[in-house]
Amino acid sequence: MVAKGALYFLLSVLITCGPDLALARHFPGRPSIHPAPYQPYKAIPLSSTRQKNKVCFVKPGHSKGHDDGPAIRAALHKCNNGGTVVLDKEYTVCSPLDLRFLKHIDIALTGKVEFCTNLDFWQQNFFTFQFQDAASWWVWGGEDIHLYGAGTGVIHGNGQAWYDAAAANESTRRPCLFITDGWHGGSITGLKLRHSPNWHNFIANSSDLLISDIDIFSRSFSSAWAANLDGWDTFRSDNVVIQNSVINHDDDCVSFKPNSTNIIVQGLHCNGSHGISVGSLGNYPDQYDIVSDLFIYNNTMANTTTAARLKVWPGAEAIKKGNPQWVGGGGQGYVRNVTYDTMINDNNNLAIQIDQCYGAINASECEDHPSGVILEDILFKNMWGTANGADDPVAGQLICAAEESCDNIRAENVTLTNPSGEPPQWQCRFMDVDQLDLGGVGCIPA
Ligand SMILES: *[C@@H]1O[C@H](CO)[C@@H](O)[C@H](O)[C@H]1NC(C)=O
Ligand SMILES: *[C@@H]1O[C@H](CO)[C@@H](O)[C@H](O)[C@H]1NC(C)=O
Ligand SMILES: *[C@@H]1O[C@H](CO)[C@@H](O)[C@H](O)[C@H]1NC(C)=O
Ligand SMILES: *[C@@H]1O[C@H](CO)[C@@H](O)[C@H](O)[C@H]1NC(C)=O
Ligand SMILES: *[C@@H]1O[C@H](CO)[C@@H](O)[C@H](O)[C@H]1NC(C)=O
Ligand SMILES: *[C@@H]1O[C@H](CO)[C@@H](O)[C@H](O)[C@H]1NC(C)=O
Ligand SMILES: *[C@@H]1O[C@H](CO)[C@@H](O)[C@H](O)[C@H]1NC(C)=O
Ligand SMILES: *[C@@H]1O[C@H](CO)[C@@H](O)[C@H](O)[C@H]1NC(C)=O
Ligand SMILES: *[C@@H]1O[C@H](CO)[C@@H](O)[C@H](O)[C@H]1NC(C)=O
């Protein structure tokens, strides 16, 4: 999907690197895509200009089983600091790529990059991170980087092989399709992300980034479950805009992990997800998690388990109901100033879910060990549409652990309908009901 009004201009250049020397080739210039309608609190820094004659085209190999990774890395080195790398053919990457050295560079990925399905090799060789076992075959970072696909570029993870392997052996560690680790300034636009083995995007240690016009599609075509295919997870990142994108997958559409601040999410269509979610937070004792200043505007949520969601573990280690391996809780921190404004609900189980007892065995257990992650200044407004009836007439849950662990949680102009025609009910615990304009019968005890 390419934004209307995006400006494309074809550049014709003399090739200065690569073997096809002196052949003029065309490639689309960086599109003019900007944050809209809401602007980040701090403007994305302006880029230095790219040199017209510093362009590296990457020629894919032809032999069976070849690896284009080294050629891609070499081109990024060669055209770093003021150039453009063009990936307009079909490439296969079979070895890890550490791309955290990028500076003042554009990458026109208008062709296709896919990853070898050499699962054993990858599991021994990909980049691994501590946070929730994240791993990937490449890691992107640096300063003033624009990666664009102009609506045609594809990054393909061959996820099916991973979903099937994970179904056969649950210890299979599956890579994220795309990880940024310290990407400061720039944009990622116009790409199609296909069949990610795990989270599609892990945006870590990054800032001042615009992500726009991304088309995500990942589903399993076997009986194996394509689990954990989050659209974007943000972590230790500030001043990021994610907008105008279509996401077809399972699990969180966008998930704000610890230390995600000043993030705008606008104009997404999420189908089949677990919603736009804060958390889970407070998962680990001795850690202080901050999520603040989020504005989540004008998103369409279809076929989700929950459209707008906040999940926070209790204050003491809890065991997720029915799953003794899923243990967490005891962390501290806060979620502050989070607004969900204008959310279209289409066939979701729940429209809103605050769960500050995530993983707790029961309500009294949760109240005895209330979460150390405080929720404050949370607003849901202008939400409408029809639930799918799974929990009819319940349209949502707003559950705090205790009186003192939540402050100023409000709802305005929320007008959900149920397929049964019954007025919606909202299961609440420790809410200030005067601040909740939820329509229907409003709060009932949870
Ligand atoms: C399952 O995968 C893990 C991690 O790759 C590996 O160590 C283990 O040997 C595998 N088990 C079987 C039965 O293949
Ligand atoms: C982010 O930065 C921290 C601290 O430097 C580091 O431990 C971590 O590996 C980095 N990357 C990710 C993906 O967390
Ligand atoms: C998040 O920020 C807080 C406060 O600066 C810090 O104590 C904590 O270690 C950070 N968490 C991570 C995962 O970086
Ligand atoms: C909401 O987002 C859609 C794209 O999903 C866009 O067409 C529409 O103009 C946006 N509306 C507002 C009020 O921003
Ligand atoms: C949404 O996902 C469902 C499968 O869960 C699929 O049948 C449907 O076609 C998707 N909708 C769109 C618009 O892609
Ligand atoms: C709340 O967050 C929004 C979105 O980032 C920001 O525009 C606004 O200034 C913040 N409000 C306060 C009181 O910090
Ligand atoms: C929701 O899923 C159904 C199939 O399960 C599909 O027909 C429909 O198009 C989906 N809705 C959207 C908006 O994608
Ligand atoms: C809640 O769970 C605890 C721990 O299993 C148990 O001791 C307690 O009786 C339960 N309370 C209720 C009300 O079910
Ligand atoms: C309430 O939300 C609807 C969308 O459901 C919107 O059209 C309307 O303007 C909102 N009303 C107010 C008073 O903001």
UniProtKB/TrEMBL annotation:
Gene Ontology CC: extracellular region
Location in or out of the cell: Secreted
Active-site residues per Swiss-Prot or TrEMBL entry: 274
Keywords tagged on the record: Cell wall biogenesis/degradation, Disulfide bond, Glycoprotein, Glycosidase, Hydrolase, Repeat, Secreted, Signal
GO BP annotation list: carbohydrate metabolic process; cell wall organization
Molecular function (Gene Ontology), one example: galacturan 1,4-alpha-galacturonidase activity
Catalytic activity: [(1->4)-alpha-D-galacturonosyl](n) + H2O = alpha-D-galacturonate + [(1->4)-alpha-D-galacturonosyl](n-1)
Cited Gene3D superfamilies: Single-stranded right-handed beta-helix, Pectin lyase-like (2.160.20.10)
Superkingdom, taxonomy of origin: Eukaryota
The enzyme's E.C. designation: 3.2.1.67
Signal peptide region: 1-24
RNA-binding is among the record's keywords: no
Classification via Pfam families: Glyco_hydro_28 (PF00295)
Keyword Flavoprotein included in the entry's annotation: no
PROSITE patterns for this protein: POLYGALACTURONASE (PS00502)
Major subcellular location class: secreted
InterPro entries per UniProt: Glyco_hydro_28, Pectin_lyas_fold, Pectin_lyase_fold/virulence
Family: Belongs to the glycosyl hydrolase 28 family.
Protein's job: Specific in hydrolyzing the terminal glycosidic bond of polygalacturonic acid and oligogalacturonates.
Protein name as annotated: galacturonan 1,4-alpha-galacturonidase
Lineage: Eukaryota, Fungi, Dikarya, Ascomycota, Pezizomycotina
